[in-house]
């Protein structure tokens, strides 16, 4: 991989956007690497959690402006219209691949989180931001609209009027306001360290229960109530008395950390 790096620590995968000289701006190569890497990780049974981070001064400054000419001078219909990943196209899958990952994904944010970077972060389950982080739905600055999955994920985080304001104006939101609005989960002086601590805590929980919980919470925001209630029951039935739950019970009774197969 040229645009990303991957490290694994005790079931936690740390995925780093690695174009620090470009403030991790997203180009077509990064999009393809991101989708491929998410697919690779999704197939790993030992994976417990993922941390997304950016190398250098920023998490991600948005779409690489060098790609604008390829979009403007090419055939937008041919690039954007095809559904290459279920309901999503290649650009939307860049962020939605993390929503589809079976384990929790935590984004560690710092510097700027603009445009495509914000949509990538919104695809994570949890967002930890440094206090000075600046976030923006930046596409309107370039005469465009957000089209990388953000209109699926951002409405779960923001009130409609706030999302409209951010989309129409492209104005930046500081980390402290982003916390108040619900755009980030919490602030931390060292967001990467906090993200790793959370990932390790998740990795110590029942892996089957964590995966079931992600499926259930995802459905809770999208499916009718009757389907969610049925899913609650099905997921719980699949957990009760199974090896992971029995390992948790035994560990709790013995006052030690659980050991999973």
Automatic annotation (TrEMBL):
SUPFAM superfamilies: ClpP/crotonase. Gene3D superfamilies: 2-enoyl-CoA Hydratase, Chain A, domain 1, Lyase 2-enoyl-coa Hydratase, Chain A, domain 2. The keyword Metal-binding does not apply. One of its GO terms (molecular function) is isomerase activity. Pfam families: ECH_1. The keyword Nucleus does not apply. Belongs to the enoyl-CoA hydratase/isomerase family. This is Enoyl-CoA hydratase/isomerase family protein. It comes from Rhodobacter capsulatus (strain ATCC BAA-309 / NBRC 16581 / SB1003). The lineage of its organism: Bacteria, Pseudomonadati, Pseudomonadota, Alphaproteobacteria, Rhodobacterales.
């Amino acid at each position: 991989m040229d645009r990303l790096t991957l490290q694994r620590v005790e079931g936690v995968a740390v995925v780093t956007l690695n174009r620090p000289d470009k403030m991790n701006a997203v180009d077509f190569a990064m999009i393809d690497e991101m989708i491929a890497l998410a697919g690779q990780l999704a197939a790993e049974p030992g994976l417990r959690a993922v941390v997304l981070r950016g190398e250098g001064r920023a998490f991600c400054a948005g779409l690489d402006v060098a790609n604008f000419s390829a979009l403007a001078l090419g055939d937008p219909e041919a690039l954007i219209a095809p559904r290459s990943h279920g309901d999503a196209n290649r650009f939307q899958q860049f962020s939605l691949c993390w929503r589809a990952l079976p384990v929790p994904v935590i984004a560690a944010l710092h510097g700027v989180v603009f445009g495509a970077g914000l949509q990538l972060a919104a695809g994570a389950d949890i967002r930890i931001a440094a206090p000075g982080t600046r976030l923006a739905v930046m596409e309107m600055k370039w005469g465009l609209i957000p089209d990388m999955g953000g209109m699926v994920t951002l409405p779960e985080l923001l009130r409609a009027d706030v999302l409209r304001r951010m989309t129409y104006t492209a104005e930046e939101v500081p980390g402290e306001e982003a916390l108040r609005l619900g755009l980030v989960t919490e602030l931390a002086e060292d967001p990467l360290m906090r993200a790793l601590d959370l990932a390790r805590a998740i990795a110590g929980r029942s892996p089957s229960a964590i995966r079931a919980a992600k499926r259930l919470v995802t459905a809770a925001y999208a499916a009718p109530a009757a389907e969610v209630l049925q899913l609650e029951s099905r997921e719980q039935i699949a957990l009760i008395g199974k090896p992971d739950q029995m390992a948790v019970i035994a560990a709790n009774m013995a006052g030690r950390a659980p050991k999973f197969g």
